[in-house]
Q: What sequence folds into this?
């Protein structure tokens, strides 16, 4: 096994070890003292510093964000229905019980239907459903988001090792470190860490790896993250770790018919 095989497989094995312990309740996602004892955390902390300049996006540079709700006739004066509450957070198991995250559909370009279909299907709206959507604006120019979609590698496991090797050959050790971080972001997506779950079953442990990643990113100084949608091709999601970091623009509220 060459060094690239070793580094990629070691990294994935370390994440799987932590993920399995999170999903069985052996370690809790908010217990940072316990998580820091895992080799994955030490590796992740060391590697992320190499990608911060590349993947960090300031709030002031984030536009084109929308949120959808299951309501077929929401009006401008009812904009508060688009704001998450503790009552609604219980439904979304991706939100820890003691937090209120704000989930939004996002894209770099103003691709209205793509963004709206993304945020609608993330709440399990079906083709043909009518939902209400509103555009949001982020409130604080000084905060920063980590963009996990700023990634130029294919999402196929059989390409991970060759990608890392190619990046090393292009730019040496620093490029290789950045490549390894991007690979692990792909692993998070492929193993279902960001995948929304259906039904009312208690998924707290299933979402524990997601919650742990939030804590890891916050530990690195990020206030939110952008990640690929698991339900819409080319779609992107933006989650803000503080639901008060964005405001709905009431006059943008309208109805949207969900389609493929």
A:
């Amino acid at each position: 096994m060459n060094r690239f095989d070793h580094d990629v497989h070691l990294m994935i094995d370390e994440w799987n070890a932590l993920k399995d312990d999170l999903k069985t309740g052996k370690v809790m996602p908010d217990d940072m003292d316990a998580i820091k004892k895992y080799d994955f955390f030490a590796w992740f902390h060391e590697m992320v510093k190499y990608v911060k300049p590349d993947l960090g996006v300031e709030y002031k540079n984030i536009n084109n964000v929308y949120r959808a709700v299951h309501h077929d006739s929401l009006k401008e004066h009812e904009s508060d229905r688009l704001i998450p509450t503790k009552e609604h957070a219980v439904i979304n198991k991706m939100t820890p019980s003691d937090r209120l995250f704000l989930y939004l559909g996002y894209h770099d370009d103003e691709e209205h239907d793509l963004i709206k279909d993304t945020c609608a299907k993330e709440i399990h709206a079906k083709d043909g459903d009518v939902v209400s959507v509103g555009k949001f604006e982020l409130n604080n120019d000084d905060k920063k988001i980590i963009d996990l979609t700023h990634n130029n590698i294919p999402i196929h496991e059989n390409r991970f090792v060759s990608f890392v090797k190619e990046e090393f050959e292009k730019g040496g050790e620093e490029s290789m470190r950045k490549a390894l971080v991007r690979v692990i972001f792909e692993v998070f997506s492929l193993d279902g860490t960001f995948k929304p779950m259906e039904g009312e079953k208690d998924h707290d442990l299933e979402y524990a790896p997601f919650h742990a990643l939030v804590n890891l990113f916050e530990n690195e100084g990020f206030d939110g993250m952008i990640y690929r949608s698991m339900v819409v091709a080319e779609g992107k999601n933006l989650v803000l770790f503080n639901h008060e970091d964005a405001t709905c623009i009431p006059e943008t509220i309208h109805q949207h018919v969900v389609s493929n």
Q: What stands out?
A: The chain has one domain: 3-257. The chain is about 40% helix and 15% strand. Residues 3-257 form one domain.
